[in-house]
Amino acid sequence: MTEKKHKLERLTGVKGMNDILPSDTGLWEFFENTVKAILHAYGYQNIRTPILEHTPLFRRSIGEVTDIVEKEMYSFVDSLNGKQLTMRPENTAAVVRSAIEHNLLYDGPKRLWYIGPMFRHERPQRGRYRQFHQVGVEALGFVGPDIDAEIILICQRLWNNLGLRDIRLELNSLGHKHERAAHRDQLIIYLERYIKLLDHDSKNRLYTNPLRVLDTKNPALQDIAANAPKLIDFLGDESLAHFEGLQSLLSANNISFTINPRLVRGLDYYNMTVFEWVTNKLGAQGTIGGGGRYDLLIKQLGGKPALACGWALGIERILELLRENNLVLSNDGCDVYIVHQGETARIRAFSIAEQLRNIGLDVILHCSVDNASVSFKSQMKLANASGATYAIILGDNEVWQDEVSIKPLRGNREIMDNAQQRVPVKSLVDFLAKVIAIPQKKEGISYNHK
Ligand code: ATP
Ligand code: MG
């Protein structure tokens, strides 16, 4: 009895991990295509690392006293071999691990990018999920500030191409390690004066990671954080020159920014340049993405020392902004839906569909949904619902006469003389080439046979 009930129980997805349904994937693909085109335009190469990494990779890079490592990681022991594994909460550490492991920097610096899901055990809410997606760049082996400016320009171009105007850039410099140490001493003395007012997290971090207290989201601590000693006042000439160099490159490229002395980023590996892209349009989850330099990380993870910087953007938050802007995507239905009836028509329909795909058209061929034959009327309903531009109809009559009927389904009737017309099979390709703008070149491959 209980077993029967158990079988019928409907399973659901995991909380905070969303299905992205076909009604939404058009928007995702539009975003992915836009960002990929830009990354290629700047000469970045795609890298794909696994979802799972050894847990110490993240503990060592992100830092023990951070939100991610303290409370957000999906970590577990592989019951088959006892290994400590973690589902990546971010991807910089993994890209650096991979670059070291495969000696990617052996012939010079590398410009890399990635896209994919990340996992953090947070409280799900708008713009905050347990599986979410980031696109990111990592520029490994560059000293900056030119590369810092370049990766910021990439983001600005992305906002422009997506038509997003409400994203601001905030900048800061975290300087070198010894500069942060001098600031840290003063910051602790300052924060100790307010120790009674600090919240649990901030008290915990007072001596382990006081810089973190500055980016607290607790409204009650905003004044304390705002008046704290500023790291920027502790920067030496070299750090300041780097920071000013970046600012002038950004200004020369018409990128506006504000300097936010409290911007420290949520991960420990950053130094020198840090930045965030923020918007007021998404409520509490207003940070679209961020990044900065991490000059010590490669060495810290066991690689030959090399300087580096990068950013990561949260895709769900960007898509939310696109929806806020009422982005309308053009119809993404196929060019042609082929309806047919009878055995001969079916065989011919297959062959016509293949020929049309050969010339670059997107074609849906009607396939049986059960064993009964489906009326033309029902097939035409499916054709309409599919979003296709044209229906091609193959009945007995058409088959006898070596013809097809073509019916425009949406917004393109004016191109054809009348609503439906007959065309000989042998001139179908030429006919469609006239009425449909066939993409000049479909992606092709070639093999280098030895
Ligand atoms: P937040 O302060 O909002 O928690 P974060 O500093 O933890 O962000 P980063 O580690 O800098 O975020 O990640 C870069 C971007 O990834 C964020 O700006 C955001 O757009 C996105 N992001 C981070 N965590 C989530 C999440 N749980 N759900 C959706 N997007 C996220
Ligand atoms: Mg976070």
From TrEMBL:
Superkingdom of origin organism: Bacteria
User: EC no.?
Assistant: 6.1.1.21
- What InterPro entries does the record point to? aa-tRNA-synth_II, Anticodon-bd, His-tRNA-ligase, HisRS-like_core, HisRS/HisZ, HisRS_anticodon
Q: Name one GO molecular function term.
A: ATP binding
Q: Where in the cell is it found?
A: Cytoplasm
Keywords from UniProt, A to Z, are:
Aminoacyl-tRNA synthetase, ATP-binding, Cytoplasm, Ligase, Nucleotide-binding, Protein biosynthesis
Top EC class for this record: ligase
* Pfam families, per the entry: HGTP_anticodon, tRNA-synt_His
Q: What is its main location?
A: cytoplasm
Query: Catalytic activity annotated for this protein?
Result: tRNA(His) + L-histidine + ATP = L-histidyl-tRNA(His) + AMP + diphosphate + H(+)
One GO CC term on file: cytoplasm
Q: Does the keyword Aminoacyl-tRNA synthetase apply?
A: yes
**Domain (Aminoacyl-transfer RNA synthetases class-II family profile) ranges:** 1-332
User: A biological process (GO) annotation for this entry?
Assistant: histidyl-tRNA aminoacylation
Q: Which CDD domains match?
A: HisRS-like_core, HisRS_anticodon
Subunit (UniProt): Homodimer.
Q: Family per UniProt?
A: Belongs to the class-II aminoacyl-tRNA synthetase family.
What's the protein here called?
Histidine--tRNA ligase
